Amino acid sequence: MSETMRAIEITKPGGPEVLKPTTRPLPVPGSGQILIAVDHAGVNRPDALQRAGSYAPPPGASDLPGLEAAGVVAAVGPDVTRWNVGDAVCALLPGGGYAQYALTHQDHALPVPAGLSMAQAAALCETFFTVWSNVFVRGRLKAGERFLVHGGSSGIGTTAIQLAHAMGARVFTTAGSAEKCAACEALGAERAINYREADFGEVIAAEGGADLILDMVGGSYLPRNVKALADDGRLVQIAFLEGPKVELNFAQVMMRRLTITGSTLRPQSDAAKAVIAADLATHVWPLIAAGRIAPVMDQVFALEDAAAAHARLESSAHIGKIVLKL
Ligand SMILES: NC(=O)c1ccc[n+]([C@@H]2O[C@H](COP(=O)([O-])OP(=O)(O)OC[C@H]3O[C@@H](n4cnc5c(N)ncnc54)[C@H](OP(=O)(O)O)[C@@H]3O)[C@@H](O)[C@H]2O)c1
């Protein structure tokens, strides 16, 4: 192995153009860590937030962007028991995915599911960890419940629709065009609502309200979400694309026994992420291997074209996941 690697760095906070190719020293795996020779790396909205300067990497994480990758284990650190050099893995990363080599904790890697390409495998971890922990653990979604996920065509949305549908929930979603709505319904949504043309609150109210809402929009959606919840409903917030501040009448929370919660994945402990990985291995990887769920792939860009990949992500023209080829 060479002592240096190709990577993409954030040269300063800003637009996609601040992503520039660079050369970095090869990372060295510490205790419990594996070094992955990255084949493909996933691109996610949090990468764009980090690039813009509003989502700093947690202490100890690489400053390079990239929260997920798939590839082959190239080296293992002390105390690694789960993987050997040469194993094909996909993994959640604390950062550093936009590079030829990336480090992660051994318990945050999963085998590449049977039948999936490396490009598909690279698109799994960030959204599947996020959806599992927020929809099924925090949000306690059960079969037969009415589930509303906003941004249905996003990486998160396409994952949430498929998983909730596979687990027997009734899935409703919002998206910004007829093409996106059709894609969401093909993935298992009972009804995709074009939010530019219809009021999601009215559609959900006619169904009896949502038992669970997964939201990334916030802002004006917050009071509308609270109103759209059924009694005992739960609202799980994973981002605030429209902003986090709003005036809200909390009496409804009390009177209708609602739960408002949320989380971010990246700052959670290694142990917490390992629990999510173990849950995914048990409950979700078999569904992928059986062909019942697959990541929705939008476009593959060369690593050096990371700026174009970010521009596409932020244009919101995409449906599903964007990945980089190393
Ligand atoms: N909390 C966590 O741990 C966690 C982890 C991963 C991602 N996230 C968040 O989850 C969201 C989805 O992530 P992703 O990687 O799947 O992103 P993505 O593919 O870029 O999807 C974002 C989608 O949101 C929709 N949208 C609705 N309202 C919007 C608005 N006001 N501004 C911009 N887009 C809007 C857009 O589709 P339309 O055309 O339909 O509007 C867009 O395609 C992001 O906000 C991300 O930060 C949170």
UniProtKB/TrEMBL annotation:
<dbReference type="InterPro" id="IPR011032">
    <property type="entry name" value="GroES-like_sf"/>
</dbReference>
<keyword id="KW-0560">Oxidoreductase</keyword>
<dbReference type="InterPro" id="IPR013154">
    <property type="entry name" value="ADH-like_N"/>
</dbReference>
<dbReference type="Pfam" id="PF00107">
    <property type="entry name" value="ADH_zinc_N"/>
</dbReference>
<dbReference type="Pfam" id="PF08240">
    <property type="entry name" value="ADH_N"/>
</dbReference>
<feature type="domain" description="Enoyl reductase (ER)">
    <location>
        <begin position="14"/>
        <end position="324"/>
    </location>
</feature>
<keyword id="KW-0521">NADP</keyword>
<protein>
    <submittedName>
        <fullName>Putative PIG3 family NAD(P)H quinone oxidoreductase</fullName>
    </submittedName>
</protein>
<dbReference type="InterPro" id="IPR013149">
    <property type="entry name" value="ADH-like_C"/>
</dbReference>
<dbReference type="InterPro" id="IPR036291">
    <property type="entry name" value="NAD(P)-bd_dom_sf"/>
</dbReference>
<dbReference type="GO" id="GO:0070402">
    <property type="term" value="F:NADPH binding"/>
</dbReference>
<dbReference type="InterPro" id="IPR014189">
    <property type="entry name" value="Quinone_OxRdtase_PIG3"/>
</dbReference>
<dbReference type="GO" id="GO:0016651">
    <property type="term" value="F:oxidoreductase activity, acting on NAD(P)H"/>
</dbReference>
<dbReference type="InterPro" id="IPR020843">
    <property type="entry name" value="ER"/>
</dbReference>
